[in-house]
Amino acid sequence: MSSRKVPKVEVLTFKDCKKAAKTLYNAFNDDDVDRYLSRHLEDQPELKKKCDLLLFEAYVYSLMLKGIVVGVKGEDSENKDCFETVATWSTPDTGTIEDYLTMLRSGFARLAWMTGAEGRRRIFHDLFKTLADNADDIMSADPDGENLFTLVYLGTIPEARGKGNVRATFEYMFKNYIDPRNSISYLESSALRNIPIYERFGFRAVADEWLGDKNAPVDKARMDVMIRGPQGKTWKYLEATRKRREYEIPECSQLK
Question: What does the record list as coiled-coil region(s) (predicted)?
Fold first, then answer.
């Protein structure tokens, strides 16, 4: 019998915001999407770090306001500057996080000033618009497409990987929020290596999307949209959407 301790997942609150953001910063500091968003600041490393951290703080705060943020704090978390794992979700009731008051309260407005004109283009046009347009296009096939939980970020710091935190986090959300509402789950994987991981929890890759020019040698970022149908079933519009989007399923996928 295994003696491994089951990770404790809990809903995070506003007092946890900065630690949750630092968790995501530590988890995604080598991620193509987040590099793309602040690539124009690579010659200003201190400013780049401030903007990267503020981006995560703004996402965490806005989804604490209008969605759900959960995490595994880990042992002795009160004496550390981050947690082990954090997941930020929008819900069927979230609506937009781009309204004026949310943008101001969360820090997105301050980020828009700090990151400059090029950063504003990358974040508020390339990222926000690309994700929204693709989600609208993909989910338009489903009459129940608004009954949707979207995983915005899920990050685990390197030293906590392999402890079962990701599984515990998904199971917590499915049991307490998603499955009781018979909802669809949606995410964008920014790393191909994560596709088989998400497949373990019922997600199937359905389409790709790009920030920047997909043919550019460096300044681009790929994401693969993955969907879990209600109660963990295969989303009924999967094959039709793949065909319509002319999606080539990555070789790493275990569920073609």
Answer: none
Q: Which residues contact 82 (CB under 8 A, 6 or more apart)?
A: 19, 20, 22, 23, 25, 26, 157
Is residue 172 predicted with pLDDT exceeding 80?
yes
1 belongs to a structural domain: no
Q: Which domain holds residue 192?
A: 10-245
The total of structural domains in the chain comes to 1
DSSP 8-state class, residue 82: S
Report if residue 192 sits inside a domain.
yes
> Tell me, what amino acid is at 205?
A
Q: Which two tokens stand for residue 113?
A: 């000033």
Residue type for position 31 = D
- As a whole number of angstroms, the distance between CA 82 and CA 67 comes to 21
SS3 191: coil
CA 30/CA 48 separation, integer angstroms: 13
Quick one: pLDDT at residue 1? Answer: 47
Q: Could you report the per-residue pLDDT of 79-122, keeping only the tens digit for each? A: 999 999 999 999 999 999 989 999 999 999 999 999 999 999 99
CA 128 to chain centre: 12
The C-alpha atoms of residue 24 and residue 21 are separated, in whole angstroms, by 5
